[in-house]
Amino acid sequence: MASLLSSSFTLPSSKDHLSSLSQKHYFLHSFLPKKTTPNNPKSFLKVKCAAVGNGLFTQTSPEVRRIVPENNQGLPKVKIVYVVLEAQYQSALTSAVKSLNDNKRYASFEVVGYLVEELRDEKTYQTFCKDLEDANIFIGSLIFVEELALKVKSAVEKERDRLDAVLVFPSMPEVMRLNKLGSFSMSQLGQSKSPFFQLFKKKKSSAGFADSMLKLVRTLPKVLKYLPSDKAQDARLYILSLQFWLGGSPDNLQNFLKMISGSYVPALKGTKIEYSDPVLYLDSGIWHPLAPCMYDDVKEYLNWYGTRKDLNEKVKGRDAPVVGLILQRSHIVTGDDGHYAAVIMELEARGAKVIPIFAGGLDFSGPVEKFLIDRVSKKPFVNSVVSLTGFALVGGPARQDHPRAVEALMKLDVPYIVALPLVFQTTEEWLNSTLGLHPIQVALQVALPELDGGMEPIVFAGRDPKTGNLEIAAYNDFQKETSYDFSFSKNKDVTKKILIWKAHALHKRVEQLCTRAIRWAELKRKSKAEKRLAITVFSFPPDKGNVGTAAYLNVFSSIFSVLKDLQKDGYNVEGLPETSEALIEDVIHDKEAQFSSPNLNVAYKMGVREYQRLTPFATALEENWGKPPGNLNSDGENLLVYGKQYGNVFIGVQPTFGYEGDPMRLLFSKSASPHHGFAAYYSFVEKIFKADTVLHFGTHGSLEFMPGKQVGMSDVCYPDSLIGNIPNVYYYAANNPSEATIAKRRSYANTISYLTPPAENAGLYKGLKQLSELISSYQSLKDTGRGPQIVSSIISTARQCNLDKDVELPDEGQEIPAKERDHVVGKVYSKIMEIESRLLPCGLHVIGEPPSAMEAVATLVNIAALDRPEDNISSLPGILAETVGRDIEDVYRGSDKGILKDVELLRQITEASRGATSAFVERTTNKKGQVVDVADRLTSILGFGINEPWIDYLSSTKFYRADRDKLRTLFEFLGECLKLVVADNELGSLKQALEGKYVEPGPGGDPIRNPKVLPTGKNIHALDPQAIPTTAAMQSAKVVVDRLVGRQKNENGGKYPETVALVLWGTDNIKTYGESLAQVLWMIGVRPVADTFGRVNRVETVSLEELGRPRIDVVVNCSGVFRDLFINQMNLLDRAVKMVAELDEPAEMNYVRKHALEQAEALGIGVREAATRVFSNASGSYSSNVNLAVENSSWNDEKQLQDMYLSRKSFAFDCDAPGAGMTEKRKVFEMALSTADATFQNLDSSEISLTDVSHYFDSDPTNLVQNLRKDGKKPSAYIADTTTANAQGVREIEKRLTNTVGWSATSGQVDNWVYEEANTTFIQDEEMLNRLMSTNPNSFRKLVQTFLEANGRGYWETSQENIERLRQLYSEVEDKIEGIDQ
Q1: Bigger pLDDT: 644 or 1033?
Q2: Contact 416, 409 (CB under 8 A)
Q3: Which of 96, 689, 828, 1017 could crosslink 253 through cysteines, CB 3.0-4.6 Å?
Q4: What local confidence, expressed as pLDDT, does residue 1202 receive?
Q5: pLDDT at 204
Q6: Number of other residues whose CB lies within 10 A of the CB of residue 220
Q7: Where does the record place the CobN/magnesium chelatase domain (predicted)?
Q8: Residue 327, H or E segment
Q9: 3-class secondary structure, 1087
């Protein structure tokens, strides 16, 4: 029974507790009865969830779709085998075949159907091949999953010539080519001479294939009827077949089978079989289960709606919210529409009017514009729209046309929700799965609709296997729970069959979906003055100095600017202070407390009884946290909600995760639950403050990382329970699409991007400045007698600046020959250039403020530094290098080696790039230095005048001859980018969301690599997970891997590394389109293969000759975010590693095989299992918690951190059992790690540096590997690093230092001088010290504490006097915080 739970609590074993438990909301109500019937206590225990048998996502068996005629009375037999994507044809086909067999005329029909997903299972696939051997007819439809399409193709191809007819309706071209009907075939499909080829061409205006096919279906039979040739008649029957199939009703399918059997089955050749023409349904229209017909006109539908007697007048009235639904026609015509009816009834029961529209093709954008928008006023008829198809709006599972979808949804301009029916799993399998939805369903029905701006992937319908153990005794309860109307049949056997054959609504999920859809609709209708908004800020790590922290965002200034604007707009923000400082004071300090106590303002005290009444899942939290109120966010009697209310706006502080003070709990918690204070906060926001919307402010809180299924949550998943029914709007950093996607999927957020501050040149500080001056004097004086003297000053100054750690310097006083001198100076110069050009965030971003000219220049210089061959744009440094006859790549390489003239040239190029860009931007700035009215001013600059500002600037440099055409192309592009940088819509989009309008979607990522991320204020999405790695990513991966392997070989006496341990990050893979994923593939020597639609679901091996080196073993650790977003790619990686382990190659050329064989023998397991190399956290849990322990200094030795890492990160993904989710394989993990010669992390972002984000050291296993290796050798630690720098803001500084300690603990790669420098900069500089102490004493205390901790743990050796000074500062700042020092 416990297997029904999708969360971490366990059940009492005795059965008599069951009824009391099920009343306590422990279960997914949609599957269990409210109480067991007393006369038969075991009645429902028979609904036993199958343990995950074959480890695949679905254990349903095609046998439930097999019909064998009982007695054929000597009639010829016709056997039909079909393969479909979804199960809705199952009941209609079954009913058609039963009627044909009951008639006992012409033939007896045997039929068996397979869902395409079932063919993953080898046994099922063999049965399928066997079924085909004696089949007459094969039918396939919507087969779009490449690996399964290839399986279908190879099985059917063997039998194609023998089969009497092969009919494949819209699917991948490979499968469509199997079509055969007499002389009609599609074998040329995809070649230009084929008439059907035109259908596959991607058309801008429509979803292409399926729609063109529908139009063709309408007209062709009429034309073909009069053509004499057989070929034309066969083509006509194919088109008729398609009409019958799309018509989908039992009658249509019965006539379809009669027509095909009579025309093509030899045994029936002479028999005259009568069949009727297809009953055609509207291609698109409006359908309601109670309406007398389908409607083609919205006015007629609304007229009928107004005459309904079963509705109360309120729903028919003008003030009722109106919800539009988008349905698939195939479910309606096949009669598999119970789940649609349930949603319609639930919405009406909750007071909403419903307009359910459908389409027969895969393009729903036309029907949306036709039926949901008033043609005259252009206003929408609806207040929100829910798509129940689960597919992208245009193109379904095949080719999508997202721009067309966005265009239609922008016209509609209401919130767009995409809910999901389970397609590849049964309800039980989904309930049991920790992953939640099947990876392919996530790719097709979650990731793709997000590109259209779809939100809230709530699972609203399930399907059932015919297991036969669903007892009739439980049927009544089941009926109540699934809100299914069975009144039409009192015959229990019939009911049982119906219950089993069709999709059913999941009652609790339907309630959640409908309530949320209505809540979004209400936003469109309420006045601004009455809307209530709960702004939620975060405090992580939990410390008063951290309240209101978010990545790169100045939270309180931004909130202040947002509220000022909303107030101007008519929202009630009564009592808002005059400044953002006063706002901080209001929220963070409790005015009535003595002195200036660092308490947060308490907005509400919630008694335990009230808390239990408002929070239905409160008892479930007791396992982890004991009885309420507990000791977090409580005063011992009540639960405390921190924050402050201004009119209708509440600013609240989200409680912390709760694990901070107790590291042992961190160590052992494979999963967790929110604490009582956390639950109380959201209960307050929804039920006491009664928020219309909650606005989570900045990246990021803990709500979306709470335990539960990864995607497609049930009602016992905590994020779903906590967010409840409140529409959630979330400001998220534009450069973090991966975590934003988790917020979208797990907390149902409408994510709005904000700009991350552009990087500026860090400039040089004290000692380095002096060194730079020495070098320029060396350049002018090197040939005079002073050369050697200056070089020795350079060497000693470089030592003082700790550059000897990075550059090999000769001993002081040593004679250096003239040639060598240039080399030494060149290397030092190159290092200084690198330090100077490091990027560093320009202060924190404030929402609603236009960027300054300085910020704009910084962004554009970085954008201009990249070549963009696909747009024919050369990089600015490249154009300038060409002017002096050099290739910029050579200049970079020379500068890296320290060749003096190259270092100098690179400096000149960098300076000229900045200068030219600044000259360009200056023309568009106002007196305040802010960039304004770009469009008009750009037109004048880019007019055909001679004085283009960049040409003016370059004319006084050595680059005056630069290619004008290339420069013009580049600056036109930069002009477009500048418009985007300035066209900030962050506030605008927030207002649209609050007014119940559609927020335009856009990609997240690094604005420098992909300027399409701009302007910010878009509803962020990640990319299509099946699109990576791209060819370009594969190319750059080869370069990085070859360098890494080459470097490791040189450093190890010519030996290749046998194993490399890598970390895969979600965001970095989105920004680089899968580069680090491609690096793993190239290490083991395989390459990705894309299908016809450009999706990557397969790999092939690269021969050893082409590879030119051994295959290198890998241990891949995926972040929790990568695991959620790219589960398909984890499957791909695991398949690739296992494929390589099974290659018949010598062990010295294939380290994957070598280690897998050794580990298989040592652990007594098979080679495939021993080749498990893809690891992450358990499903639904994130990060290794090493960062939390470091932040809170709650660990005793590094071994404790390493245990924490092993116990949380040793869950493996298995491509042979993808449905099993992540399973713990710690032994294999440890053995694989013990062979690692190097550890490698990618850090790809021009605006994040290693010490910015604690997640990076959280996943670094360097020291751990050293402990696991038999020889105790420390592996080399590589980071493909772009930046390390140092930003303003005490909080940022303190955070970076804590993260530095984290690096010391996990990789041991941080030198002593790093801490010394930090101490000199922040503590010994009096001015800096006072500034830090007064600005944010709480963070300053943490900074001092971290220095002391680094010393205590042996990472930093320093003088006793430094330590004494720090201790004294610690007690001073304590006093200041406690208010003694007034």
Answers
A1: 644
A2: yes
A3: 96
A4: 60
A5: 35
A6: 19
A7: 243-1291
A8: strand 322-328
A9: strand
pLDDT at 797 over 70: yes
DSSP conformational letter for 1322: I
Run of H or E residues at 79: strand 77-84
Q: Please say whether the dihedral angle defined by the alpha carbons of residues 45, 48, 51 and 53, taken in this order, is positive or negative.
A: positive
User: At residue 857, does pLDDT exceed 70?
Assistant: yes
Structural contact between residues 97 and 67, judged by C-beta atoms closer than 8 angstroms: yes
Model confidence pLDDT, tens digit, residues 1016-1026: 899 988 776 66
pLDDT in tens, 119-167: 888 889 999 999 999 999 999 988 877 888 889 999 999 999 999 999 9
Nearest to 330 by CA among 351, 361, 355, 304: 361
Alpha-carbon distance of 10 to 6, in angstroms, equals 10
Structure-model confidence comparison of residues 1200 and 754, the more confident one: 754
* Share in percent of the chain as helix, strand, coil (round to 5): 50, 15, 40
| Six-digit token string for 196 | 């059907």
Given this model, what pLDDT does residue 445 score? 84
Cβ density class 1317-1353: b for 16+ within 10 Å, e for less: bbbeebbeeeeebeebbeebbbbbbbbbbbbbbbbeb
Paired residues of 181 in beta bridges:
165, 184
Give SS3 for 340: helix
Instruction: Give the largest Cα separation in the chain, rounded.
Output: 115
Q: What tokens were used for 1369?
A: 């500062």
Distance of CA 825 to the CA centre of its chain: 47
Token code pair at residue 1168: 């495939």
Question: How far is residue 1020 from each of residues 232, 737, 759, 1023, measured CA to CA in Å?
Answer: 50, 6, 21, 10
Closest CA to 745 of 450, 537, 1126: 450
Side-chain-facing half-sphere of 597: CA atoms under 13 Å: 9
Q: Which of 112, 78, 117 is nearest to 94 (CA)?
A: 112
Cβ 281 vs Cβ 294: under 8 Å: yes
pLDDT at site 1182: 57
Round to whole Å and give the CA distance between 740 and 1308. Answer: 32
Q: Beta strands of 495-568 (E only): which ranges?
A: 504-505, 533-537
As given in the structure block, the two tokens for residue 274 are: 């009568």
pLDDT at 386 over 90: yes
Work out the pLDDT band at 479, boundaries 50, 70, 90: very low
Q: Identify whether the C-beta of residue 716 lies closer than 8 Å to the C-beta of residue 6.
A: yes
Q: Specify the 3-state DSSP secondary structure of 488.
A: coil
Whether the per-residue pLDDT at 532 is higher than 90: the answer is: yes
Run of H or E residues at 718: helix 718-723
**Per-residue pLDDT tens over the stretch 305-349:** 998 888 888 888 888 999 999 999 888 888 888 899 999 999 999
Using CA atoms, how far residue 521 sits from 350, 649, 726, 997, in Å, is 13, 20, 12, 9
In this predicted structure, what is the pLDDT of residue 596? Answer: 33
Regarding predicted confidence, which is higher, 1200 or 97? 97
- Which is nearest to 762 in space by CA: 603, 910, 912? 910
Rounded to a whole number of angstroms, the CA Rg of the chain reads: 33
- Are 850 and 984 within 8 A, CB to CB? yes
The two tokens of residue 1070 are 């989105």
Categorize the per-residue pLDDT at 1274 as very low, low, confident or very high, splitting at 50, 70 and 90: low
Report the alpha-carbon distance of residue 1287 to residue 759 in Å, rounded.
10
